[in-house]
Design goal:
Elements (H helix, E strand, L loop, with lengths): L4 E5 L2 E5 L3 E6 L10 E2 L3 E3 L9 E6 L1 E5 L4 E10 L8 E9 L1 E5 L4 E2 L9 E9 L7 E10 L5 E9 L5 E11 L9 E6 L27 H7 L5 E6 L9
Antiparallel strand pairs: 1-2, 3-17, 4-6, 5-15, 6-8, 7-16, 8-13, 9-12, 9-14, 10-13, 11-12, 14-15, 15-16
Length: about 240
């Protein structure tokens, strides 16, 4: 069994074994260029000079109303002028969005997930040249009777620093189509579950499952749908600075 580390979440201590996780509020940024968007993304730890990793998510996904299956393209890119060296991309699901598989990536054990996450995969990248990008097709399911969020942190290969993090950012629709074959969901939109007769679908799971167990302060951060999830490992402060 792996050793346990203390994790800070919205000011309270919990136990985890993957990395230290801190939930903080983050403003969404403007959409990125091209077919994807960096909405809900923010730089965290300072990257090496000339290195600028970012991520992109599709502006829209489509969820099969029968199987609940969907595919989400997660892209990491280097907008800098120098190569990144070894890094890793994490693809993490929250609430009604569950990441089932990301080809070429390793599943994060349940006990190693951050508080509130239901699934996640770690994608190692040996190097990303300046201006280059790498995309992963994440197979997922989306419970249309709930809200759902995804998070894309970009870290050093050992997880000691997080250069960039997108999310947790929601996918959803304010105009569900329960009788259609599929439902389109937009990035940055909180899902509004509606039954065929116009009533709200029953929530799945135990009462309060849609709210991360962060206490009053942590729950308040989720109202905007883009609460930050900083992935960083506790480490000693540098000496002599």
């Amino acid at each position: 069994m792996s050793s346990r580390r203390m994790t800070t979440i919205a000011g309270s201590l919990v136990t985890a074994s993957f990395s230290a996780v801190m939930i903080v509020a983050v403003p969404a940024v403007a959409n990125g260029p091209g077919p994807g968007s960096d909405k809900g993304g923010k730089a965290v730890d300072q990257a090496p000079a000339g290195v600028k990793p970012t991520t992109l998510l599709p502006e829209e996904i489509s969820v099969d109303n029968g199987s609940r299956k969907t595919t989400i393209t997660a892209t990491v890119k280097n907008d800098g002028t120098k190569e990144t060296g070894g890094i890793r991309l994490l693809v993490v699901g929250f609430d009604g969005l569950t990441v089932k598989n990301v080809p070429g990536c390793s599943q994060i054990a349940e006990g190693d997930l951050p508080e509130g996450a239901n699934s996640g995969f770690s994608c190692p990248i040996d190097n990303l040249a300046a201006g280059a990008s790498k995309s992963y097709a994440a197979d997922a399911t989306f419970d249309l009777g709930r809200t759902g969020k995804i998070c894309l942190p970009v870290q050093t290969s050992d997880g000691s620093r997080t250069f960039w993090q997108q999310g947790p950012v929601p996918f959803g629709t304010t105009n569900p189509s329960p009788n259609a074959p599929a439902t389109p969901l937009l990035l940055g939109t909180d899902n509004t579950p509606v039954a065929p007769d116009g009533g709200e679908l029953p929530r799945t799971g135990a009462p309060g499952r849609d709210v991360l167990p962060l206490g009053a302060a942590g729950a308040a951060l989720l109202t905007a749908g883009v609460a930050g999830l900083w992935w960083s490992r506790r480490r000693p402060e540098p000496q002599g600075r």
